Amino acid sequence: MYFEFEDKKIFYNLRKTGKSKAIIFIHGSGSNSNTWKSQFNLDIDYDLIALDLPSHDKSDYFSDLSLDLYVEVVHQLIKFLHYEGLILCGHSLGGAIIQQYYFLYPKEVSGLILCNTGGKLRVAPFILNSLKDNYSKYLSDLPAGVFYRSTPKELIDLYVEETARIGAEVTYSDFKICDSFNVLDKLSTIDVPCLIIVGKQDQLTPAKYSEYFHDKIKNSELHIINKAGHMVMVEKHTEFNQAIKNFINNYF
Predict the structure, then answer these.
(1) What contacts 245, CB < 8 A, 6 or more positions away?
(2) What local confidence, expressed as pLDDT, does residue 201 receive?
(3) What fold characterizes domain 2-251?
(4) Alpha carbon 25 to chain centroid distance?
(5) Which residues contact 21 (CB under 8 A, 6 or more apart)?
(6) Containing H/E element for 137?
(7) pLDDT score of 120
(8) pTM of the predicted model, to two decimals?
(9) What is the dihedral of CA 28, 42, 37, 159, to 10 degrees?
(10) Where are the chain's structural domains?
């Protein structure tokens, strides 16, 4: 499905329940809505939505990518779909987007799911350099950086294939957005229920980032999932989905 933003099309998947409540899933750098395909099996009475950010996969190309653009696209999607109860779930870069969204529009958000992300998201220079200078090396190094070592090869290959479709330029822009993101001084002002999920072996956004969230956000619960890396929602989707289901049952 598509909606229009600035005369361009933004793609989103929707699982409808007929309810007025929804979870919107927002992917990370160089990724797409397929990141969340296992979450569309969640057994909850919420509509489930996952979008392709601008310039990603099925969404139209935008020449200038920024955090502000991504947040505004999410805002317009929410206005387009007319939900009353809304939970935002963001992975990595998506986590930055939903934090910024909350700080701009706190009354629109019922809860946050912060997945393998942080209040500050510095990116190692070698990642940025490889995206600019040697994209094939970036792709070949990607599995070791984002997956736990025992993750099935077919999951890894599919993820690398989909990342390659996004391309170096867009992925570089995403990581630059992450690199400049810092809202550490605002985290204690978040007062909606927050579920914080991270893979114990995450190398890009280590578990200490999520522990910091838990320390600063008073109404939060933390789930550290063992034998999972940065792509915990793919690697350990059963545990990930159960954590979301429990969160919904406990708070909403």
Answers:
(1) 42, 43, 44
(2) 98
(3) Rossmann fold (3.40.50)
(4) 6
(5) 45, 46, 47, 83, 84, 85, 86, 87, 110, 252
(6) helix 135-146
(7) 98
(8) 0.97
(9) 60
(10) 2-251
